[in-house]
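One-letter codes give the sequence; each number marks local geometry. A record appears below:


***
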Amino acid sequence: MLSASHVSKSFAGIRALADASLDVRVGEIHALVGENGAGKSTLVRILTGALAPDAGDVTFAGSRVTSFSPLDARRLGIVAIHQHPSLFPDLSVAENLAIGGERKGPFSRIDWDARRTRATALLASVGARIDVDRDAASLSLPEQQLVEIARALGVKAKLLILDEPTASLTPQEVDRLFALLSGLRAAGTAIVYITHRLDELPRLADRVTVLRDGTTVGTEDMEGVTEARLIQLMVGREVATVFPKRTVPIGNPVLEVTRLSASSVGVRDVSFQVRRGEIVGIAGLVGAGRTELARVLFGLEPASGGTVMLNGTRSVPRSPEEAISQGIAYLPEDRRRHGVVLDLSIAANLTLAALDRFSRGGVLDRAAERRVADDLIASLGIKTPGADVPVRQLSGGNQQKVALGRWLVRPPALLILDEPTQGVDVGAKAEIHRLMGELAAQGLAILMISSELAEVVGMSDRVLVMRGGTLAASFTREEATPERVMAAAFGTAA
């Protein structure tokens, strides 16, 4: 179906792809893996007509592609579903699903009933129960992703490219997605599946191609490759452990939450503590109230009851400004929308939460800002030509490091991490986990929300499980087995 041979691409002298090759067969699920910055996104943009390669050949369905646009790619049947959904926020779900799927003349009337019926059927085909009249802006990330997948089905894609499609899905939604993709494979659809969750691949993929530093380093049958082998190909070295949990002294309580409720977002009667040097993980299914709890603690949502104590002082922040002044930092789930300012430089992003330290009389000391930024870039291992590069140009893992590094300029008492390694590669994940251990050793209290069960169990000193907006269970590190945590999340016996 598709063959890309010896493709290269550079941006302002920086090589993104060099001798990258990929071939995908009819009726095959072909995994594409690599560290953030390996060139996966650049290759996808070339395959979908968004970029022209500097060199190399691309053929589709037996014909050489010389130059084509995203519209041409869509007409050929090439559809990409990106990690960050691209729905039109002010249009309804039905209208979003109609884009590219309806064939109407310039003076045709819209059959709204037919449009809604078609939208409902497409959503049902991916196991989604979403009101088709809802605005896309009101959807959660998992819901947006399911709508994107349904839209691809509506245009009858011949080649479907999925970038981290399970990053925000529950285990049941993942199972439904895999069953759906298997059905598309059986019907002859070619699928490129990009993921950092290597444990998914044996269940799904037929073959796997590994990119490293813009170059294809291997393509192997999935049946004969191990996860350890993939990691070695991806990073060029052995990764001793992805969850380097450090044992550090646990001190006095930093955060004490007692019967906290927020009726506007469904949080009710939540009580727990986080102590100095402690990493407390919060597990639960999508919609369990984990992110909503974090937003209440950071002053983004109003509390309707209960108390919050920070270092022994009563504190219920009414705004993020109050939360920051009290020593609370928050790394949100959607880093591109809320974690970084994409069009600002790395230096500007890193110092954004502590501008008073770099200004005098309202004038920014850019030299001081640059010195701090250079130090953080080095200590966090951010891959960039320099501190003046816009964050938009960084890979997902490096954007996450920038979002985290912002809170290290003025170290907080409590750091709330919502999905800290979602959509980052195994190497960046290990680095972020190592940094979490170092911060805990310095006495920082960390509250970590994660949908990745291995991360919660592997990195936490204690695990809290939320269900239906409240705490359903609490486990010590020794008690927190994957089976127990999932049983509490689902409300079943372990």
